[in-house]
Amino acid sequence: MHPLQSDANRKIDAALVRAVQILHKNRCFVDAFYLGRIQLERGSQSGGELPGFIRNAHEAGLLSECAEFLVALANERPDDVDLLNYTAGLLGEMGQRRQSRDFARMAAARKPFFPSSAKNAKLRVLALQCIATADYRYSPLAGRFFLPGITSLHTILDPGIAVHRLLVDDLPAALKAAKNLPKCDIVFNAISDPDYEDSLQNAATLCDALELPVFNHPHRVRGTNRTSLPTALQGKSDTLMAAKSVYLPPDRAKNSDILLAIENSHLEFPVILRAPGFQGGHQMALVGGYGEIEERGGDLYRGNGVYILEFVDVSFQDSRAAGHLFYPKYRAFFVDGQLFPIHFFASDQYEVHKKTSDPVRVRHPWLSDMETDFLQAPDRHLPKGLWDELKAAMSSFGMDYFGVDFAAATRPKDCGKLVLFECNAVMANRIALLPEGSLMQRQWREVTLAAHVALCKKSGVAAWPFALKKGLIFSPEDCAQ
């Protein structure tokens, strides 16, 4: 290309960038989208422009057209990793999961390794991750990617720890990259959802090839899935129980298959239906009878698979709120032989999360006293001996770092037992997301410190005074609002 022509193209590209920015600022999102499309068609570097392009499409109500355009462009430019990633993420956000996984796998094949920029690291960690999963997505509003099924621990480590990242989705590409890695002390398997079986198998193969100590070995993670939990508890404790569950694979997850499985498994309604590979209550429903499944219309779980879970009622009543029914959920975290209490939530619905618990706690402040009691003395808060039983059970899984959600059974036949809802390492570490110095934030600080010590111990590197993440800081003005 002639230098004058190259200079002219640069000026045109710069003018397009400015024009798109002005249109977006003036909320002319349709025009901004179509001008951005021209900009991308010209072959500009897509990575920096794609977030704004997708946001304009969202604001203009043109996400479907945006996705079609990105798919076509990504097929034309299969070596543009940023373009492949954003295409995969947007397709995931729109529920087109199979196509999303295809583009994510292409991106991982072309660029599987991401080195750390940390200098003079005291500990060098290789984190194994995956992106070609059931719920990988890019949110236009948040302007970021979401990686469900991946633990957040390796993203909040001390600055003296170098964290290199290796994507396992394309195993040949990952194995090739593994031959030329910088020196590492330990492998951190960040793939924490036991339903990500293919990714975990790839990760296990890489662990064998790397011959390094492994934190949360993939084989151990696979043993924490929902169908394994009841079996894992058998013979270990008479006071711990888990909900009975049945898994139907993607090709046997039609509504008729679900109905037949409930009959054959002698499960009683209500039951919980939950797609594998999703967190935070996504793709989950409580159904009260055969009719509700048939009325849902369509085979919602076909293509993803489904867990059919026994609904174990752990609801309780209290004289301080006559006539009210509360659904509790405790969380604890196990780190290298230690069990830490994390939180106690209570909701007025079966699906218990912070967002459903907070309004209930405002109306019934004594629930906060229950949480304080649990966090300060879990062994006294729970029926005698159950905290030690839970710790022993968690030790038996062979994991280095993972959480457990549970509650005290209230059905007459199960009184005196703890019901374990799930065990996994996906549960987000909230050390930096809670008010600094709050009781729950201090619990996460203890967990995070223990995890740092465990990483050093397993890699044979001496520990040092770690600089842990701080919690949220609120001014008096913030608190008054």
Notes on the protein architecture:
With 481 residues, the chain is of the alpha/beta class. It has 4 domains: 3-107, Serine Threonine Protein Phosphatase 5, Tetratricopeptide repeat (Alpha Horseshoe), CATH 1.25.40.10; 113-222, Rossmann fold; 225-243 and 312-424; 244-310, ATP-grasp fold, A domain (Dna Ligase, domain 1, 2-Layer Sandwich). Helix content is 42%, strand content 17%. The protein has 18 helices and 16 strands.
Q: Name the shape in a single word.
A: globular
Count of all domains: 4
Range of helix content:
40-55%
Query: How big a fraction of the residues is strand?
Result: 15-25%
User: Number of DSSP helices?
Assistant: 18
Major sheet description = 5 strands, mixed
Cα end-to-end separation: 59 Å
Radius of gyration: 25 Å
Give the strand tally.
16
Mean pLDDT: 91
Low-confidence stretches: 476-481
* Classification by helices and strands: alpha/beta
Strand order of the largest sheet: 1-5-2-6-7
